[in-house]
Task: inverse folding
């Protein structure tokens, strides 16, 4: 088979995977929103019921205003933190960067559990709340989501602020512009698209998150928990599909806005740009150091509180330390099995998803023309970023549980969890692979063809070894997210396939907060170990001829 034939065949398999794992389930979700209980066409009946009910509209309004407030709080703090990392001479920047990533390695429920220990009804700092105030509800949701979304905003803004052209600052200083004027007229305009991108990412993450409002939301309804209530509590799949579609709308808006901002940001730096290197200045560096120390203290304090709470015998009456809370068989039927299930699913997602995603990206970038297949796969590879995990999980229920579906055997097995995780986190992994492949010189394939070496052999012997840092990054990304996700798998596990993140939710629902915190800490330990292994392996690679990604 010639190179073009292999490209078409590979992209055909990729299209089938993305249709079965994304397009068909979403189509089934859309169709279910227009059906009654018996599966007959019901038109806009469910949408009219949703719009006509104040009780159903309230979660949408709650999701919007809490997510907007979270965004307004996170953006300035993340901007100043990123500014300190890129535009100052702070000591210990590697430490701050490492601490910044900690919330990404933990389930979103961990900050919510820590806030319960700190400000709950029996919280350590309960006295700090105003009279009649409660952490359960919008205050707790916003506080926990600020911690959960902060790293995502800080990473985006660090990239935006790191792409500074030193010539602009030199010109401004030559014209005797003041520091505030330079910040207002040079720094902010250059970072404005990064701010837009970070804002929409934070808003989307907050509006679609399920774990935090489930744990600390109390009786305060939001869209994510309303989907769960409609499906699990009332078995009303049609109304659940309607709410899921409503939840999808802000995610789509955020997706397109973030993509637009990314493209504009990429075009803001010319090829003649000179890297900006800040000079030491105490009046700037000391306040930024104080801010970064404060952020690091909050992030580490949240993790430390969860660890300490997981070791307390009976909060707050018996503060003696014990490992009894880690005996998960006493609190959940799955016991430690849920952790092993999560590790199995995460490993399979990494082992299966990484070569598939990298190979598809290679076919798209270097495989040559393949007709309409190329365009379809390109669009389908980006689409999962706009689909919340809860929406995709519900779509999987409706599609894979459909009578007569030949793929129905996957329902209730670990395989459907693996497929869901790979598809849900596909886009970021795909973009990582595309970036790595575009950095490689096309001469590799040209030389191989001149020597009559098959394209697949060039791919295996040349492209893959050179791309190992990016491949490892993709594998760890899939592993970490499969370990920590709640919303993507909350609808899909079976009796023998409960993930650890879902076990955290169930233990918290049962009032076993200490054991829930213990499981969340164990998940954090596993993901942190995976990240450290990646860094160690990347350092080994850097000892050779290729630097790490």
Result:
């Amino acid at each position: 088979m010639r190179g073009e034939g292999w490209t078409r065949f590979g992209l055909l398999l990729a299209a089938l995977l993305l249709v079965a794992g994304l397009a068909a389930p979403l189509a089934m979700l859309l169709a279910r929103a227009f059906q009654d209980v018996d599966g007959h066409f019901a038109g806009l009946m469910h949408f009219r019921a949703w719009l006509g009910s104040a009780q159903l509209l309230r979660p949408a309004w709650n999701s919007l205003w809490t997510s907007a407030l979270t965004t307004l709080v996170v953006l300035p703090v993340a901007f100043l933190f990123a500014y300190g990392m890129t535009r100052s001479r702070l000591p210990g920047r590697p430490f701050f960067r490492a601490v910044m990533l900690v919330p990404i390695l933990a389930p979103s429920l961990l900050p919510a559990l820590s806030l319960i220990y700190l400000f709950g009804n029996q919280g350590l700092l309960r006295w700090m709340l105003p009279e009649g105030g409660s952490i359960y509800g919008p205050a707790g949701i916003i506080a926990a989501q600020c911690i959960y979304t902060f790293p995502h905003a800080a990473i985006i803004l660090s990239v935006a602020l790191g792409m500074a052209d030193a010539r602009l600052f030199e010109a401004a200083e030559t014209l005797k512009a003041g520091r505030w004027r330079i910040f207002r007229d040079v720094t902010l305009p250059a970072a404005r698209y990064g701010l837009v991108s970070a804002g929409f990412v934070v808003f989307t993450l907050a509006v679609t998150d399920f774990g935090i409002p489930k744990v600390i939301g109390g009786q305060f309804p939001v869209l994510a928990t309303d989907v769960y209530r409609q499906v699990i509590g009332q078995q009303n799949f049609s109304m659940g599909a309607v709410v899921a579609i409503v939840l999808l709308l802000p995610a789509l808006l955020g997706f397109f806005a973030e993509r637009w901002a990314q493209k504009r940001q990429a075009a803001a730096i010319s090829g003649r740009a000179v890297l900006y290197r800040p000079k030491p200045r105490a009046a700037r560096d000391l306040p930024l150091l104080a801010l970064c120390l404060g952020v690091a203290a909050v992030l580490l304090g949240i993790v430390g509180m969860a660890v300490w709470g997981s070791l307390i015998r009976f909060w707050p009456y018996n503060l003696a330390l014990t490992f009894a809370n880690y005996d998960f068989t006493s609190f959940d039927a799955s016991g430690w099995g849920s952790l092993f299930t999560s590790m199995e699913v995460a490993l399979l997602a990494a082992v299966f998803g990484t070569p598939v995603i990298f190979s598809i990206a290679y076919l798209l970038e270097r495989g040559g023309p393949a007709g309409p297949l190329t365009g379809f796969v390109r669009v389908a590879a980006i689409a999962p970023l706009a689909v919340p995990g809860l929406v995709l999980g519900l779509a999987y229920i409706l599609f894979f549980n459909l009578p007569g579906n030949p793929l129905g055997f996957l329902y209730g097995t670990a395989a459907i969890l693996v497929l869901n995780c790979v598809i849900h986190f596909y886009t970021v992994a795909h973009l990582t692979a595309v970036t790595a492949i575009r950095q490689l010189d096309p001469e590799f394939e040209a030389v191989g063809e001149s020597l009559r070496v098959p394209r697949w052999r060039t791919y295996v012997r040349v492209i893959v070894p050179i791309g190992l840092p990016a491949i490892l990054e993709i594998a760890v990304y899939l592993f970490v997210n499969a370990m920590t996700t709640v919303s993507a798998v909350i609808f899909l596990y079976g009796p023998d396939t409960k993930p650890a993140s879902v076990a955290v939710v169930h233990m918290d629902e049962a009032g076993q907060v200490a054991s829930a915190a213990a499981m969340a800490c164990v998940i954090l330990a596993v993901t942190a170990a995976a990240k450290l292994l990646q860094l160690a392996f990347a350092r080994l690679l850097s000892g050779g001829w290729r630097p790490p990604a």
Q: What stands out?
A: The domain at 61-222+248-322 is CATH 1.10.3720.10 (MetI-like fold).
